[in-house]
Design a protein that fits this description.
It is built from four helices and two strands; from the N terminus they run H-E-H-E-H-H. 0% of the residues are buried. 31% of the residues lie in helices and 7% in strands. With 90 residues, it is mainly alpha-helical.
Length: 90
């Protein structure tokens, strides 16, 4: 097995509380938490708890802009994009 040198030339990510890697590391170094209240419109906190018979989930780590998806860039119709699982769009 040969060992070839590896160069990381670019790193990209979208993380809760950080839109890029640099901000993520700033948050880690500063001890900032990405846990926030459930954003308005994400889900009905009380209704969700009642539906599943449990405690309401009021907090989480959420991605900003998770609902934004450029369907044309991925040759996907708007109708298909609307039906996709949000994890597929990410």
């Amino acid at each position: 097995m040969s060992r070839e040198p590896v160069a990381i030339v670019r790193m990209a990510s979208i993380l809760p509380g950080a839109l890029d890697v640099e901000r993520f590391w700033e948050n880690v170094q500063a001890g900032r938490s990405a846990i926030r209240d459930v954003p308005a419109g994400r889900w009905d906190v009380e209704g969700h708890a009642a539906l599943y018979g449990g405690l309401p989930v009021r907090f989480g780590a959420f991605l900003r802009g998770a609902d934004a998806f450029d369907a044309a860039a991925f040759a996907t119709s708007e109708a298909e994009a609307a039906l996709m699982d949000p994890q597929q769009r990410l």
